[in-house]
Amino acid sequence: MRALARPAARAPAVIAFLLCSIVAHLVALRGASVSGWLAPPPRESAQVTVELIVPAPPAAAPPVASAAAPARPKPAPRARPRATPRAVPAPAEAAAAAPAVMAPTASFADSDPFGAMLDLADDDALPAGATDAAAQGDAAATTGSPTGASPGAATPAQHADEQGVAVAAAAAATTPAAPLAEAPIVVTPQSGTVHYRVHYGDPLDGNVVATLEQSFEIGPQHYRLHSEGRAQGLVSWFYRGSLVQDSVGTVSAAGLAPSNYHERRGDRPPRSATIDTVQGEVIFGSGRRREAPQGVQDRLSVVVQLALLRQSRPAQFEPGATIRLSMLGNSSVEPVDWSVIGEETVNTDAGAVRALRLNRPGAGDDPAIDVWLALDERIVPVRMRVTERSGRALDQVLASQ
Questions:
Q1: Which one of 170, 173, 300, 381 is least enclosed by Cβ atoms within 10 Å?
Q2: What are 207-234's pLDDT values in tens digits?
């Protein structure tokens, strides 16, 4: 019985051992540890959501009603002195703006001894003058109607009287004043021919580059001027052309009044201008039209007109005075100021001649022009000099007459 009882008592231990052995083998085969079998399952991570709380904007403060300022009584308008209308000037003479001049040439390299002598005027026209807008505005304000009535304001009858006086004053102010009576220009009928030598630089150096012949026919009612220049010396090898100028027109108590001007230089296209005194305009060969101011002169007649003015109105030619003449350019009309320098002596082939020197200052690319007018009855200059900005000069001196 004991032998049977022992195996029965040992059976639970054997079974437990066998179970432990089986578990150990399973763990070894699966590569896991007992803790892996016995460990509790992992917990899922809790998701945390964060919401930002934006503070609400503060409520707008209710508008505070400000105490209304007491209304200030409007003072009675004071009577304002009415401005005296200013005179409206007559339209100004045509003036030039951005002129394009013929390039002055006075050196052997340029091979044109007459180029600079033609730069007496610019190419582009100046805009015609306009009336004074400010003066018109003042006159309009003076004659304007009242906008309302207030205590102390003028009565309608008084206002009408004032308007009538203002209109009359404006009309009197805008009426151009009658020009001062000037002595008529005395033009003596005459004719002749003069010769000049054109020097490059100082005439004392004797560097003659061209000769110039001018003829004039002045009649009681008409005139004709002709000028022709030719290169001389070394310059003639490079410049074989000539400079030809013609001016024709009428004669009156105002002096010379050109009607046609023609110019031809070398093989270049000729230039011309016709002055229509009926329409009061200049018609250039290019077809351009410009206003013709009273007394306008061309490049050839201007020096003769200056001589006639000096002989008839010597008081206007005191040293320091300025003589203004309108001149024709290539396609423009512009005013040109001549300043009176004073008397000087000019040495010519015929001897020393007393003359009055006038100067047109250079401006921009325009050369300076000096003219010497004889103090006797001659109507052609005894000397003329054209000086460029670079200092180069062409000097035309009387050789014979």
A1: 173
A2: 999 999 999 999 999 999 999 999 887 7
Total Cβ atoms within 10 A of residue 35: 7
- CA contacts within 13 A on the Cβ side of 380: 24
The pLDDT tens digits for 115-145 are 555 543 344 333 333 334 333 444 344 344 4
Which residue(s) pair with 394 in the sheet? 200, 386
Contact status, residue 132 vs residue 88, Cβ threshold 8 Å: yes
Between the alpha carbon of residue 165 and those of residues 88, 89, 104, 143, the distances in Å are 18, 21, 58, 9
Q: What six digits make up the tokens of 333?
A: 């009309």
Return the number of other C-beta atoms located less than 10 Å from residue 160's C-beta: 11
**Token pair listed for 214:** 């001018």
- Give mean pLDDT, residues 4-20: 67
Which residues are CB-neighbours of 286 under 8 A, at least 6 positions away? 331
| 8 Å CB contact between 259 and 248 | yes
Token pair 């009197």 in the structure block, residue:
172
* Residue with tokens 């399973």, as numbered in its chain: 26
